[in-house]
Design brief:
The complex is a heterotrimer of chains A (about 180), B (about 350) and C (about 250).
Chain A: E1 2-10, H1 15-29, E2 33-40, E3 48-56, E4 68-73, H2 76-82, E5 86-95, E6 110-114, H3 116-122, H4 129-141, H5 146-156, H6 164-180
Parallel strand pairs in A: 1-4, 4-5, 5-6
Antiparallel strand pairs in A: 1-3, 2-3
Chain B: E1 4-7, H1 8-18, E2 23-26, H2 34-42, E3 49-52, H3 56-68, E4 73-77, H4 79-95, E5 99-107, E6 113-116, H5 121-125, E7 136-138, H6 143-160, E8 163-169, H7 170-174, E9 176-179, H8 187-196, E10 214-215, H9 222-237, E11 245-248, E12 255-258, H10 261-276, E13 281-286, E14 288-290, E15 307-312, H11 319-327, E16 333-337, H12 346-357
Parallel strand pairs in B: 2-3, 2-4, 4-5, 5-8, 7-8, 12-13, 12-15, 15-16
Antiparallel strand pairs in B: 1-9, 5-6, 7-14, 11-13
Chain C: H1 25-39, E1 45-49, E2 64-67, H2 73-83, E3 88-94, H3 95-101, H4 103-112, E4 117-122, H5 152-155, H6 161-165, E5 173-178, H7 182-200, E6 206-211, H8 215-218, H9 222-236, E7 240-244
Parallel strand pairs in C: 1-2, 1-3, 3-4, 4-6, 5-6
Antiparallel strand pairs in C: 5-7
Helix pairs in contact in C: 1-7, 3-4
Classes of the chains: A alpha/beta (about 180), B alpha/beta (about 350), C alpha/beta (about 250).
């Protein structure tokens, strides 16, 4: 069993952190193999950013596949760029605040929607949109147990304990959305 | 042992520290910046020294100095920066100074592309500087292997008093993967390694006209220079015992993929996919790309093998020339290539394999 | 009888100078040897030798030596001194080595305040390769690559290394000396010794620029070359302490 995931969006949307949290949780709490591969533009800020996470019971060949099992898109341009890579019957997760559902031109994939930009703003911190989306992804796929993923986030935020309650809330809201769309 | 999720560059740096590396000098260039950044944080914790050189040229010469003074030392860069280091590497090889350097290679030629590539194969394996010296060149295809080879590289370098090159591509350098780290050498072990070099190290010696330390990357006397070349050649000839190669399901293979580094890893997954579908595909993966495991190609069954498929991220192909020397005309050689920062696609390799099988 | 002078121990025995007649490299190498002998630091002395005539230095000395790639001596010295801080580390470089091909390494090491010493030989010309123009070549002075003589429009002006480095905050000691008279030879030795002492005290970067002659490539006999130093070189390169933080 091997899962190929691509996470794509604008620089600054926490795309890399989302992928890394997932890879870290897999490494720390499972026997599975995992790879995380980032792809940046040349810009330090803004621009596009995407990363690939592969989780597998066996040895991982390509750390970035040509065909994705799951695709998370955080902005419109990423949808256009990566939708063709999603396999038939694969799952597309969209940030429905800024990705127009009508632009999803394929009917052979499953669609999971979460307005994470709006939700994050309502929660008072635009930056937690990636944690919400991570919750959505984990809640929907259960590729790694949610409590393990939360432990990883908690550990990574160890130096900023003030941010923990907000992130916990964000992650759990995401989980709910993910589970509800199964 | 507990596994730890690490980025390739950082894992390489940590492996070096654990091997007793206590000096690093380097200069920023993508995609290897995490190596100097990691050393900058880590070396002061273990009593080591990090210097950001004013250039790649300066950095490699700082390493030449530090290693000549007996300290396990390292530098790293990416393709254009490695080109700048070639003068210093040649001096280290000429003066028989043990040091380790890593090329996290990217697209080229010129400034090329900041994305991963394998376009420095000839430079790495045939001529990393002037004068025809040779080095052990180690090409990892996983982050774990990058760790293990970096750790071993310092022992090879000290054993041979010669530079060792870790040839990793930008995928290995920037991806994260769980690793098990080798044991940390104790301060006593690190000190003992340094002390073992004090006879020849350039650190100052008691007045003794015959036995001062003279680090000589050249000679006025051509007879002495030739003798120096001959001694180095004898060391290079001894490396057959150090050959490392992975031969994967080649006995009955109708297609044998030849690839190193990230392409070999992708190639291996292609072998698994093909075998699951009943297709007879194998892989030869050089881990030491210099010296090259030519004899592995003698193990191919040429009665059934339709072609060897050279897979590399370089246009024009480079590895293919060593593959040709291994195959010796016993079957056709096909290529599956990309370059300029584009990463090899598994689908492309699968298609190339199928095309050969369909012939 | 009291012994008041003996052979410099840190110069190899039974060596005859291979330098050209009138060349001052042999003088400077002897002064370095005397300074090391007098400071009693032979067991910790390390020279980093540049490329060019300065590279011949290694044949005559009894202390440790490493040959650096052309221009990179200050980078090599950085690596040695940082990992072997108890060693007395100095580079021995000519004007082409230090101030042309190696300018980035030289200025950067000075700017970091690396705790080693540079012995910088300025004779205004490339020696070993046969009289090509150096950054320190005087205006009007002929070189094989400036056959009509250096002119400011095409080649710019002679480079003043001590003054250039004086723009940096870190260097501890910068002095320009010469070996054209017995008095100046003594001053040169004192400057070298002072620079070494500063290093042993951990004071940081020091450079001693020594204005010397190259009779062969200047096309002068050795005595005329001394006059040339006095009349042409020293007005362009005035002697004295440029910086001494003490």
């Amino acid at each position: 069993m091997e899962t190929n995931l691509c996470v794509a969006g604008f620089g600054g949307q926490g795309v890399m952190s989302l992928g890394k949290f997932l890879a870290q949780a897999t490494c720390d709490s499972t026997d599975k193999n995992v790879t995380f591969f980032p792809s940046y533009g040349a810009e330090q800020r803004g621009g596009t950013a995407n990363c690939f996470v592969v989780i597998s019971d066996g040895l991982i060949g390509a750390p970035l596949g040509d065909v994705m099992d799951d695709l998370i898109v955080m902005n419109g341009p990423s949808l256009a760029k990566f939708l063709p890579t999603l396999k038939q019957g694969g799952t597309l997760f969209i940030n429905s605040s800024i990705v127009d559902e009508k632009e999803v031109t394929r009917s052979d994939v499953k669609l999971v929607k979460a307005p994470v930009t709006e939700m994050a703003l309502e929660m008072g911190n635009a930056k937690v949109l990636n944690v919400i989306m991570l919750g959505v992804y984990v809640g929907y796929t259960e590729v790694v147990p949610p409590d393990v993923v939360w432990d990883t986030i908690e550990h990574k935020l160890g130096s900023k304990p003030k941010l923990l309650p907000l992130n916990k809330q964000a992650f759990e809201k995401g989980l709910e959305i993910g589970r509800s769309q199964k | 042992m507990a596994r730890k999720l690490m980025k390739g560059c950082e894992a390489i740096a940590e492996a070096a520290v654990r091997a007793g590396c206590r000096f690093f000098a380097g200069y920023p260039i993508t995609p290897q910046n995490e190596i100097p950044e990691y050393f900058a944080r880590r070396l002061p914790e273990v009593g080591g020294v990090f210097v950001q050189g004013e250039s790649e040229v300066a950095s490699v010469n700082m390493v030449y100095g530090a290693a000549a003074a007996g300290t396990r030392s390292m530098t790293s860069s990416s393709s254009p920066g490695i080109a700048l280091k070639s003068e210093g590497i040649s001096y280290c090889a000429a003066a028989r100074i043990p040091m380790v350097y890593a090329n996290i290679s990217r697209g080229g030629p010129g400034v090329g592309a900041i994305q991963p590539a394998q376009q420095d194969y000839f430079q790495a394996t045939k001529a990393s500087g002037n004068g025809g010296f040779e080095m052990l060149v180690l090409a990892p295809s996983t982050v774990q292997e990058a760790v293990d080879l970096t750790y071993a590289a310092f022992d090879y370098a000290d054993r041979d008093r010669n530079p060792v090159l870790l040839l990793a591509d930008g995928v290995i350098g920037t991806m994260m993967e769980p690793v098990e780290l080798p044991p940390m050498k104790t301060d006593e072990e690190v000190a003992a390694i340094k002390a073992s070099k004090s006879g020849w190290a350039c650190i100052g010696h008691k007045l003794d006209y015959a036995n001062r330390s003279w680090i000589a990357p050249g000679q006025w006397d051509t007879a002495i220079m030739q003798k120096q070349n001959e001694e180095a050649a004898a060391v290079y000839a001894s490396w057959k015992k150090d050959l490392q190669v992975e031969e994967y399901q080649i006995e009955d293979a109708e297609v044998v993929i030849a690839a190193y580094g990230i392409c070999a890893r992708i190639g291996k997954s292609v072998v698994d996919i093909c075998r699951a579908a009943g297709k007879k595909v194998g892989l030869i993966r050089p881990i030491t790309v210099h010296p090259f495991p030519y004899s592995s190609f003698d193990k191919i069954n040429y009665d059934v093998c339709k072609a060897v498929l050279d897979v590399e991220m370089s246009i024009p192909a480079q590895l293919v020339q060593d593959v040709e020397l291994g195959v010796k005309g016993r079957c056709p050689i096909e290529t599956c290539l990309c370059s300029g920062g584009n990463i090899m696609s598994r689908e492309a390799v699968l298609e190339a394999v199928d095309a050969i099988l369909a012939k | 009888m009291e012994k008041i002078y003996s052979r410099t121990l840190t110069i190899q025995e039974n060596k005859v100078s291979g330098f050209c007649p009138g060349c001052m490299h042999s003088t400077v190498i002897k002064l370095i040897g005397e300074a090391i002998d007098e400071l009693g630091v032979i067991d910790k002395s390390v020279a980093i030798t540049g490329i060019g005539c300065c590279g011949l230095h290694m044949d005559y000395i009894a202390y440790d030596n490493i040959t650096a790639p052309h221009g990179r001596a200050c980078a090599v010295a950085t690596g040695i001194k940082r990992t072997s801080p108890d060693s007395l580390v100095f580079t021995y470089q000519g004007d082409g080595d230090f101030a042309s091909i190696g300018l980035a390494e030289s200025v950067s090491a000075a700017n970091r305040g690396e705790n080693f010493t540079v012995i910088f030989i300025n004779n205004g010309i490339y020696g070993m390769t046969g009289g090509q123009m150096a950054p320190t070549t005087l205006l009007g002075m002929k070189a094989t690559t400036a056959p009509k003589g250096r002119n400011a429009e095409e080649h710019g002006y002679p480079m003043h290394v001590c003054e250039l480095l004086d723009q940096l905050t870190a260097p501890h000691y910068l002095e320009r000396v010469s070996c054209n008279t017995p008095q100046n030879v003594i001053k040169t030795k004192n400057a070298i010794k002072k620079a070494f002492k500063y290093q042993l005290e951990g004071k940081g970067f020091s450079l001693v620029e020594i204005v010397t002659s190259c009779p062969t490539n200047w096309g002068l006999d050795p005595l005329d070359a001394l006059d040339f130093i006095e009349q042409k070189m020293l007005p362009e390169y005035p002697l004295g302490v440029v910086r001494d933080k003490k």
